[in-house]
Structure formats: structure tokens, C-alpha cells
Write a structure and sequence with these properties.
Length: 315
């Protein structure tokens, strides 16, 4: 009873606590647009402050230049001696692909693919608006802060049934066809079997302007944007050891729209083998079903992975 009474008093105290003005919730609106050498972004804060910290510390910001006088950018934070409400950063493309780190900015021909979550700040809501100049398009249509986004020439965008495909100006047509046809066929295949209720229009971005060293790589983000990046110049006729895995690459990435993004796994972040293994198996099963690869290739591919697991487990 005593406890109850104390509880009741505590509740009452909370209710009648003298009226300090409620501290306004901090928030940011961010705009981004093409600029010479990359993408220029402007942050506007709801409340003035002396420091903001970027939400994702793993993004590489060494190519970011803070252009607002009197402010500094270091260790993933923007600081000043005096309160500020706005700041501008020129974001130049990342200088390398780094394993398991999302690229902050990559070239797509004359345009760019920007990683929206890299712009988000700690302890506040943020919205990102992409601004297009004449002849440019921005994608996706909504929630750009939550994933990869394209800003660049409209001429690079093909709108097809099942989503948009953005192809950088330097991509050879054979690679462009392989990737865009696979992206659409994979959606048809998985959609018919797993349900087609994706909450967005998927977007596939293909660029051969990767800084490397990874030969090719894809990342899928929560807004249904798949960024695929290819390094080097031999993409019109890649060597056999690259051409083989390349056949199912876009099938693997598209599977992630359902596995890892459309559906999130409980241990997804700590055990990526669950959604990676699932996507790889789904891609092989789908690609052999529609004749993109043959039985021998599936057996070879599964055998390779099984051997990899056995040696990793010390068998
Ligand atoms: Zn994957």
C-alpha cells in the first residue's frame, strides 16, 4: 500500500511538475544536388546547436568537404564554437570499395549514387530531398534518407514494367542487357512464388565507374534501390571466371528485395550468412529454372560453397 502511495505521488509529481517549456525535438531537413566533383548537401536544423554527430560512423567521409565557414568536420561530427543552424558539405565519390561498408557516393556516368543513411544525424529525425537540375532525374520517389539514391542525367534511366533501371554512360550494352533483363525476370520469378507486394518501385543502378578494388559488388537498401558497381574496363567481354558468377549476380541481389529487406531476419545483422546463403540459393534455383544457367553450373556452384563451408569449419 505504501509502495502504491509512493507510486501515486510520483505520478502526481510528474503531472504537476512546474511548467518548464518542453525542449523541442531536434530535427534536420537535408537537400542534395549535383555539383562539380560530386554532390552538394545542405543540412537545416530545427534548433541551433554547437555539434551534430552522424548516425552511421562506418561511412567513409574523408572525401567530404565542409564548406560552411567557422565549422569543422572530423570524427563523424560537425562542430563550431558558436551555435549553427545550417551547414553545407561537398561530397566527392569514395576512393575505394571497402568490404561490408556502404559507399557514401559513387559515380554513375555523369550522375551519382548517394547513400542516404550516411547523411542522417544522431538523435534526430531527418528527411532528405533530392533536387534535380535541368535534364536530371532523382530516384527513388520517396524516403531517400533510408537507402541508395540516384541523382543524374535522365537519359541514364529506363523505366520498365517492374521498376526503373539506371545505367551509367560507360556501361557496355551487353552488361546493361544482362543486368536489366535479369532484374526484371528475377522479379517476375520471385514475385510469382513469394508474393509481389513490395512497398516500392524497385530501382536497379548499374555503373562501371567503381573505384575498385572489388571486381563487382552489389548492395540492396531498404527503399528497394539496388546499387551494382563494376570495376575495370573488360565488361563488354569479361573473362570466364568472372562471367560465370556474373550470370546469377543480379538474381542474387534482386532476391534481397524479399530476403533481408522486404523480410528482415531476426539475426540478420550478426549472421549475414543466413540472408546471403538464402539469396545465393534462391538465385541459383531461379536462374536454373529459367535457363540462365544449366545443371552443371548449379552443381559446380553449390559444390564450391559446400567445400568453402567445410574448410571454414575445419572439416
Ligand atoms: Zn547478398
Amino acid at each position: 500500500m505504501k509502495l502504491l502511495l509512493i507510486g501515486a505521488l510520483a505520478a502526481l509529481t510528474l503531472v504537476i511538475a512546474p511548467g518548464q517549456p518542453a525542449k523541442a525535438q531536434q530535427a534536420a531537413t537535408v537537400t542534395a544536388r549535383s555539383a562539380p566533383g560530386g554532390v552538394a548537401a545542405t543540412w537545416r536544423l530545427k534548433e541551433p546547436t554547437r555539434e551534430v554527430v552522424f548516425l552511421d560512423p562506418s561511412i567513409i567521409r574523408s572525401q567530404w568537404t565542409l564548406v560552411t565557414p567557422g565549422l569543422t568536420l572530423s570524427d563523424g561530427a560537425v562542430r563550431s564554437d558558436r551555435p549553427f543552424e545550417t551547414f553545407d558539405i561537398l561530397i566527392a565519390p569514395d576512393e575505394a570499395e571497402v568490404d561490408r561498408v556502404y559507399m557514401g557516393l559513387a559515380r554513375v556516368g555523369a550522375g551519382h549514387v548517394l547513400y542516404g543513411p550516411g547523411l542522417a544525424l544522431k538523435n534526430m529525425d531527418a528527411a532528405l530531398t533530392l533536387q534535380s537540375a535541368g535534364g536530371e532525374t532523382t530516384l527513388p520517389a520517396a524516403n531517400a534518407i533510408n537507402g541508395y539514391a540516384y541523382i543524374g542525367p535522365d537519359s541514364a534511366v529506363q523505366r520498365r514494367d517492374g521498376g526503373a533501371v539506371v545505367v551509367g554512360a560507360n556501361v557496355p550494352s551487353a552488361l546493361s542487357t544482362l543486368m536489366s533483363d535479369g532484374f526484371l525476370a528475377a522479379q517476375t520469378f520471385y514475385g510469382a512464388r513469394l508474393g509481389r507486394d513490395l512497398p516500392y518501385q524497385p530501382v536497379l543502378i548499374v555503373t562501371t565507374d567503381s573505384p575498385g578494388p572489388t571486381t563487382f559488388r552489389g548492395d540492396v537498401t531498404n527503399t528497394g534501390v539496388i546499387a551494382t558497381r563494376f570495376f575495370g574496363t573488360s565488361w563488354d567481354a569479361p573473362p570466364e571466371d568472372v562471367a560465370g558468377p556474373l550470370k546469377t549476380f543480379v538474381w542474387h541481389e534482386t532476391f534481397h528485395l524479399w530476403n533481408g529487406h522486404g523480410v528482415r531476419l531476426k539475426d540478420g545483422d550478426s549472421a549475414p550468412w543466413l540472408h546471403e546463403g538464402g539469396a545465393e540459393y534462391g538465385a541459383l534455383a531461379a536462374a536454373v529454372s529459367v535457363g540462365v544457367i544449366d545443371d552443371a553450373q548449379v552443381k559446380f556452384s553449390l559444390g564450391q560453397r559446400l567445400n568453402g563451408c567445410r574448410s571454414a569449419l575445419g572439416d
